[in-house]
Amino acid sequence: MASKGAGQQSGTIRWGILGCGRIAHTFAQDMAWVEGSEILAAAARQGDSAQAFAQQYGIPVSYQGYDALCQDPEIDAIYVATPHSHHLHHAEQALAAGKAVLCEKPLTVNLSQSQTLIQAVKSHQGYLMEGMWTYFLPAIQQAKQWVEQGRIGRLLQIKADFGYPMIYDPQGRAYNPQLGGGAVLDMGIYPLALAWLFCPEMPETIHQLQHHAATGVEDELLCLLRFPQYQVDAVLGTSFRAKLPNVAYLIGDKGQIAIEDFWRAPRCALYHQDELVEQFEDGRQGSGFEFQIAAVNRDLCEGRLENRTVPHQTSLALAQLMDRLLNRPAAS
């Protein structure tokens, strides 16, 4: 990684936002709840979009196009918020300019691209983290602690789904195969990531059912995964066709944990049979992005090149899992 800028030396991380779409708004809003960081610049393909975004959030600089943002010497870290079909190029561009990178999930559209990007990180001696913000949520961490403490006995099953109806637009990001469309990359990564968090190994078997939109991308998927070392079965689903319950259950032989809206997880609950034993609620002030932003800030201030909660190996594993679900040839 390039030598630390003044912001990193002083403990303040100076951020730039690359792409000013919907998810970038959540990032900018939640930055207000993170100490030791500030957003100094935003960039979009269209200059007026970047300017409007910057004005909305009191960001001092806006750029048309992304190269100027990457070359800005005042910026320490860049949040890549463009469509995932562009993540590889934009993250590489920022890394080559010596910036730390937080890249919105999924890291890229397939395992081969993720391998390429992580190799680029090593070549530039840079910092890269996939924005799997769910892993940093206090309720998810609390659920993991309960499992590790044996509060539900031996983990037997994981059930999780995530889906919202998406208006069909063959040219839009969700349904266009050229833009990395499909429910698995967009929403299905959340239940997959949850399963991996509790069972970090490749499943020995995957059984699945898919439904496809007219463009050929999957707009609904149900799958059953078996994790042999952990002796855990996972039932996962995702959908563009319907609103799913969006609840995760961690089921053990002595109890279970329910996590409503698990992808953003404001709370979780521990049950023994039908009895509610304990509840946890995080009382957050933002939307939940603030926890991952703070984690990246700590990494940079302490000189780490890789995050411990979402290491590169986890990003590669999730990419491999999605490739398997999408029946893609194995990457070399």
Structural class: alpha/beta
Spatial order of the strands in the main sheet?
A: 8-9-10-7-11-12-13-14
Task: Figure out the total of helices.
Answer: 10
Number of strands: 14
> What is the total number of structural domains?
2
Pfam family, one: GFO_IDH_MocA_C3
Family: Belongs to the Gfo/Idh/MocA family.
Domain Gfo/Idh/MocA-like oxidoreductase N-terminal: 13-131
Keywords: Oxidoreductase, Signal
Describe this structure in words.
The chain has 332 residues and is an alpha/beta fold. It has ten helices and 14 strands. Strands 8-9-10-7-11-12-13-14 form an eight-stranded mixed sheet, with helices on one face. The chain starts with 5 loop residues before the first helix and ends in a 7-residue tail after the last helix. Pfam families: GFO_IDH_MocA, GFO_IDH_MocA_C3. InterPro entries: Gfo/Idh/MocA-like_OxRdtase_N, Gfo/Idh/MocA_domain, GFO_IDH_MocA-like_dom, NAD(P)-bd_dom_sf.
In short:
Helices cover 32% and strands 27% of the residues. It has ten helices and 14 strands. Keywords: Oxidoreductase, Signal.
